[in-house]
Every structure is written in structure tokens, then in C-alpha cells.
Amino acid sequence: xxxxxxxxxxxxxxxxxxxxxxxxxxxxxxxxxxxxxxxxxxxxxxxxxxxxxxxxxxxxxxxxxxxxxxxxxxxxxxxxxxxxxxxxxxxxxxxxxxxxxxxxxxxxxxxxxxxxxxxxxxxxxxxxxxxxxxxxxxxxxxxxxxxxxxxxxxxxxxxxxxxxxxxxxxxxxxxxxxxxxxxxxxxxxxxxxxxxxxxxxxxxxxxxxxxxxxxxxxxxxxxxxxxxxxxxxxxxxxxxxxxxxxxxxxxxxxxx
Length: 256
Description:
Shape: flat
Largest sheet: 2 strands, antiparallel
Order of helices and strands: EEHHHHEEHHHHH
Strand order of the largest sheet: 1-2
């Protein structure tokens, strides 16, 4: 199964990792568990070396699933933030004792630790989204709890509508002569004049959506949750997530 990625999201059907990883069909639940373990492990990792090893492992997994190129492209979204963190920590870190010009070595290492951790977070989430897809995550959330599934689905569907409403309101206010530039106070007043109608229309839309769900009989009957078997791929995800956490915990004990 090939992963044709367009616009940052996969076009292949969600619910199974591409076959080159060798696990076959992996349900969404074990993937979510593995991603949660990865986020926790990266957050608890204390050293740059261990974070670098985990980041290389994520890149190897992306290569095995054919998602290396879109994953590396996703790093561009945090490139400026990462560079800014390195510069700020190198320049203003109070614990620096060794300096190269105005930049401290210890500050650079502290910033590098945060940057690698940030890239690890981004990599875990993008690997989950690129290999699974939002629709599969919504279906999984609906199987766990029907209310949770409908909340996630409505949230994801309303975000582009709110963005379009924001752009339309800004254009309408500018056509009426409102200036979006100027000092900070003027900008705050301008965006306040834009946000108020957007929030009011969002509340009206939410009330209408709630009424529509009520009319269609939402929550009047609950569907039976499907029974899921633990496959080899699911067991591998659970085991990998647990081992990931155990390895990081052991690393923290060693470097204490």
C-alpha cells in the first residue's frame, strides 16, 4: 500500500499502516497509545543524546512507512521557532559560563535540548496524522465514546468555517474604512471589532447545530460498540509504547 500524500494529509484509506513496516493492519487505538507513549517519553527524556536517538528512530519509522519526505517538510513549520530558541537561549541563558562571542555554550546546549524535544513532538504527531488520517481518528473516538467522536468531528469541521468567517469580517470592516495597521492599541481595537461578530456568529451556529442534532434524534439511541480483536500489529504497538516508557525511565535513573 502506497502513501500518496497531498496537502500534508494521506489519500490512502486510514486504519492500516503501509505494508513495508511489516505489521499489517494496525487499528487506530494502538496507534494512539503508541503516540501518547512517545509524547510522554520525549517529554521525560533528560539528555540531548537520548532525544537524538529517539528522533532518529522516528525518522527510521517514517522511512519504513514512506512518510519521510512529508515529515521533514512538516519541520519547516517550526524552523523559525527552533532557530529563535537557539539564539535566545545562547544569548540570554543565565547559566552559561563559556562563551563564543556573545553566545554561551551552555545556553546553546539548553536550547538544543528544547529544539530536539520540539521536533520529537512534531514528528510523533505528524506520523500519527499522516499514517492514520483525521477521519479514522474521529471514528476511533466515536467507538470509544459517541459524544467524544461528535465533539471532535464538529470541532474539526467548524475551524475552516471560522477562518473563512474571520477573513470575510476583516474584508467587510476594511471596506467600511477600518484600518488594521497602526500602533498596538489600534490593532487591538481593530481585531476586537472583528472578533466580536465572529464569536457571536459562531455561538449562533453552535446553537443551530445543537438544535439540528436534537431534531434528528441524537442521543436517543446508542449504537453498540464494535468488538475489536488484538492483532499482532496492535500487540506490537502496545509493547513498543510500554518499552519506550520503560527505556526512558531507566535513562532518567542512570543520568540522575
